[in-house]
From TrEMBL, chains A, B:
Tagged with keyword Nucleotide-binding: yes
Domain Guanylate kinase-like, chain residue ranges per copy: 7-189
Protein name: Guanylate kinase
Similarity-based family: Belongs to the guanylate kinase family.
PANTHER family found in the cross-reference section: GUANYLATE KINASE, GUANYLATE KINASE-RELATED
Native organism taxonomy: Bacteria, Pseudomonadati, Verrucomicrobiota, Verrucomicrobiia, Verrucomicrobiales
InterPro entries recorded: GK/Ca_channel_bsu, Guanylate_kin-like_dom, Guanylate_kinase, P-loop_NTPase
Stored Pfam families: Guanylate_kin (PF00625)
Source species of the chain: Persicirhabdus sediminis
Described purpose of this protein according to its UniProt entry: Essential for recycling GMP and indirectly, cGMP.
Residues forming coiled coils: none
EC identifiers of the protein: 2.7.4.8
GO MF annotations, alphabetized: ATP binding; GMP kinase activity
Kinase is among the record's keywords: yes
Length: 201, 201
């Protein structure tokens, strides 16, 4: 019996203000998981390298990848396309590396429909929920410099996204960052103990 | 939506020398989970209280409880009977209290056959595995005062029990106590995040 195991795909959603992106970033900074390099149609910024920061695509090459079902999920943000390649994620998973995917509720539902068996077996999903609308409002207006209508729009979007918590297997009610991170990391550690992920050698 | 949830029944097995009992004890001492009070036919020792330390039973009353399917699991140890009542465990679970059950592989298979739906929904099982037979031997002979044949018998029993690891959902390869406990507690914390355990109020 070997200690080797296949990687986990940790899918994390939660409204703006839930703190999910900070949780994901810390997990990667501590070396517990990696982000998969995404494809995008936006222009490279200074210093960005193709294949490192992103796989830069033309509209046409991106569209072709969509048509060939190469993406776990893809979306348009501010007029640019972004997508996560199945092949990139699978490469990490097969090495036993855990991958974290910071994604909205629409993207998450695309991931759940992905036909790749490796992806589905690796998948663990969690929703990060702000503790209350009052606290969420505080967090979304906390930057201090934004116009009221911008804050109101963020708030509306976040409250809408909050309704999807019950599509997820696990739920973190956001408290302090340290509390949230302890729970978040426990999810990953517990998944690593699963006998079903062990690879017999 | 309420934050209330039903309790978890954490079933822990592993050979003598795996350190599982120390893990369970620490979890209860830290207030993360409780032991369920067991029934026994052995005589009360000085200071032991009926209904606190054990529910003391006669052979006849114990046998009746077995026949009436009142136990999650029961076993004979050194000529005395011990059993865990379904009703006791369910009472904790319904209050949202997590229960830890330190149990051998035979007991664990009885728990898996238990007909109570509440028990089955609450069940999370983990096997604690000594890192190697060499390390196990060191641990089992470590007490220093035991005869060789006693150590050999313990060793034989533990190696036999080690074969059952793949009946469990999760597996902890025992390292240091701190490493093991971090994993063990993560299992419980991760289970508490499950949406399926939330009680809508």
């Amino acid at each position: 019996m070997s200690h080797k195991r296949s990687g986990i795909l940790l899918l994390v959603s939660g409204p703006s203000g839930s703190g999910k992106s900070t949780l994901c970033r810390r997990l990667t900074e501590e070396g517990e998981a990696v982000y998969s390099t995404s494809c995008t149609t936006r222009q490279p910024r200074e210093g960005e390298q193709d294949g490192v920061d992103y796989f830069f695509q033309t509209r046409e090459s991106f569209k072709k990848l969509v048509e060939e079902d190469k993406f776990i999920e893809y979306a348009e943000v501010h007029g640019n396309n972004y997508g996560t390649l199945i092949s990139e994620v699978v490469e990490h998973l097969e090495k036993g590396t855990d991958v974290v995917l910071d994604i909205d509720v629409q993207g998450a539902s695309l991931v759940r429909e992905c036909q790749s068996e490796i992806i589905q077996q690796a998948l663990v999903d969690v929703f990060v929920m702000p503790p209350s609308e009052e606290e969420l409002y505080k967090r979304l207006s906390g930057r201090g410099t934004d116009a009221q209508e911008i804050i109101d729009l963020r708030m509306k979007n976040s409250v809408e996204e909050m309704q999807y918590w019950n599509k997820y297997t696990s739920l973190i009610y956001s408290g302090t960052h340290e509390e949230d991170y302890a729970k978040f990391k426990s999810l990953l550690i517990a998944e690593r103990l699963k006998v079903s992920r062990l690879i017999q050698a």
